[in-house]
Amino acid sequence: MCGIVGYTGYREAYPILIKGLHRLEYRGYDSAGVATLGEDGKLKIYKAVGKVVNLEQQAEGNDHSGTLGIAHTRWATHGAPNERNAHPHLSQSGKLTLVHNGIIENAGILRQQLSSKGYTFKSDTDSEVMLQLIEYTREKHKRDLASSVRAALKKIIGAYAIALIDEDSPDTIIVARKSSPLAIGIGENNSEYFIASDASPIAGYTNRIVYLEDDQIAVCRRGEELQIMDFNAMRVEVDAKEIDLDVSMLDKGGFPHFMAREIFDQPAVLRECMRGRLLTAHRRIVLSAVSGHREDLIGARRFIMVSCGTSWHAALIGKQLIEEYCRIPVEVAYASEFRYSNPVVGPGDVVFAISQSGETADTLSAIQLAKERGALIFGIVNAVGSSIARASDTGVYIHVGPEIGVASTKAFTGQTTVFAMLALALGREKGTVDEKTYEAVFSELENIPNKIQSILDRSDEIKAIASAYAGKRNVLYLGRGMNYPVALEGALKLKEISYIHAEGYPAAEMKHGPIALIDEDMPVVFLANSCGQYEKILSNMQEVISRGGDVIAVVTEGDTRVKEIVDKVIEIPDTIDSLVPLLSVIPMQLLAYHIAVAKGLDVDQPRNLAKSVTVE
Ligand code: F6R
Quick one: which atom of ligand 1 is closest to the CA of 406? Predict the structure, then answer.
């Protein structure tokens, strides 16, 4: 999704803005632009289609001086991805320039109204409409810019985060938000302000960050205190948080892609996720959200999980873990479907929001609805201070560090690890998990990072298998029980980054339809590592082989029966059934990664995809 960066202070803005755009590249975009305001009091705007480096080439050798500026990466919604539609947009008078993230739903009607008042438009975007409306409001009512922004935004229906500068105010950026994230970094003594869609462009400059709330406008003027107000012009207290962002986590750490680093980082980040929570010496699991809401959780009527994509797959695993160890009924819903289904939800329900970015618009609206209806909201989020984290009543951060590659990997294993700890801790409180099982799962959780490492050490074997599949058009993924969500996740990873059509199914469902697809051109990935239903999965595999299907099987180390019938076998260590996804997903991630690399594709920023999906 679009990314916003802004700077006002005493340093040259351009390098800060470009560095910030690079840090936001992971969100996915198709064009980029930058505006700076130099000492001559004139705005300089550069735009380019494609990558941020194209923008740098455009600006090279040209004047981009100034200590005030805004910049943007655009993910097209209204209008094709071309230079005309790239941001920053310039107002009719040429005085105001704006960057916008989000969608304006009434842009069509506003455009007509403004056209009838003599406004012309240079782009097809809803963002330019918003800017012209701000300018029109200022000129009509002769108000200051912040008041004009406030009045104009009251007429706008939709989602937005904006940053706006005025040629006549060389030290000020005005920002506003509704349903789209925006962070403001505050420099020492308010000497400078950093604006960004998330904290990553701000990391390394300051740790003091304010996350703007919905329906708030902020005036960031260098050398002056930050002013935040709501849409009724009431001043809001500035609540700056100290956020520790590890800058070293924002690079590839020697790997060719962020996705590779994130796959290979999993042993370390899962240890981090469990640190201070899985207390080895005391055999206790400490999650403050569980102890703090013990009665609400134990006494809950049911749990409902809302999420999207990979986080939805993790929720399917969470359901199995919680039902097994806590005996609490769990429903899993796509956030987008839940939101618009008039759900039966209310007091006594606990709604879990699972999200890596913490900014997914569908998930955020789903929990807002559930909250209005009286449910307790429990967030399982990676991005600290994100909108979903803030909208939750309680929750657990997965703490796996920033995930930059568009395809989610370490967030999935982090979410699954949190679900395992949560289910065990709550099951113990509730008395639904016996001591022997508790101890066995607890000990195995401690071993999981080493076991994941042993799979990663075999990455080259998986790469060798992958090389034969780069030319395929379709792949089927099959698994049962705990491996069914892993089959879905394997298929999602492959389609996202290799553009090969892939479907995940519960293995037993194959005979109810997908078996018609099986022939020698249909590779089938079987998750056949021991997971409770080994004999059954073996029969499903025979059904595929006897129809000429090409099988790749994930098996438990030492398995001999699958090897007798299949040549392409990926061995993984044995583990407890309930933790199987933490291991079996690793070959799925590596297979997709190596196939995409073999196809020469942009693994970290696959076409059409955005990392943080901030529109519904
Ligand atoms: C898959 C992927 C997406 C996200 C989905 C939810 O690799 O990245 O499917 O999982 O957009 O995002 P979050 O978890 O940020 O809410």
Answer: 8
What are 388-435's pLDDT values in tens digits?
999 999 999 999 988 989 999 999 999 999 999 999 999 999 999 999
Check if the beta carbon of residue 352 is closer than 8 Å to that of residue 338. Answer: no
142 is known as an active-site residue: no
What is the sign, positive or negative, of the torsion defined by CA atoms of 239, 236, 202, 335?
A: positive
Backbone angles phi, psi at 354, to 5 degrees: -110, 120
Q: From start to end of 141-272, where are the E strands?
A: 158-166, 172-178, 183-186, 193-196, 208-211, 216-221, 227-230, 235-236, 241-242
Task: State which H helix or E strand residue 84 sits in.
Answer: none
* Ligand 1 proximity of 389 Cβ (cutoff 6 Å): no
Kindly state if the Cβ of 97 falls inside 6 Å of ligand 1: no
Confidence (pLDDT) at 533: 82
CB of residue 309 inside a 6 A radius of ligand 1: yes
Is residue 598 over pLDDT 80? yes
Report the predicted TM-score, pTM, of the whole model to 2 decimal places. 0.81
pLDDT above 80: residue 615: no
Give the separation between CA 371 and CA 352, rounded to whole angstroms: 11
Element (H, E) at 133: helix 126-141
Distance, CA of 62 to CA of 48 (rounded, Å): 14
Paired sense of beta strands 394-397 and 349-355, if any: unpaired
* Backbone dihedral region for residue 215 (phi beyond 0: left; psi -120 to 50: alpha; all else: beta): left
What are the tens digits of pLDDT across the range 256-302? 999 999 999 999 999 999 999 999 888 999 999 999 999 999 999 99
* Concatenated DSSP letters of 525-568: EEE-SSSS-HHHHHHHHHHHHTTT-EEEEEEETT--HHHHH-SE
Tell me, what's the pLDDT at 556?
95
Total residues found in the chain within this entry: 616
Q: Where are the beta strands (DSSP E) in 231-320?
A: 235-236, 241-242, 278-279, 284-285, 302-307
Residue from 382, 613, 615, 616 to probe ligand 1 pocket by mutation (most atoms less than 8 Å from CB): 613
* 427 compared with 246, residue with greater pLDDT: 427
Q: State if residue 363 touches ligand 1 by the CB under 6 angstroms criterion.
A: yes
pLDDT surpassing 80 at residue 360: yes
Q: Which residues contact 206 (CB under 8 A, 6 or more apart)?
A: 185, 186, 187, 188, 194
Helix intervals (H) in 277-409: 288-292, 294-298, 309-326, 335-339, 361-372, 387-391
Å from CA of 341 to ligand 1 middle: 21
Tokens representing 516 are 């018609």
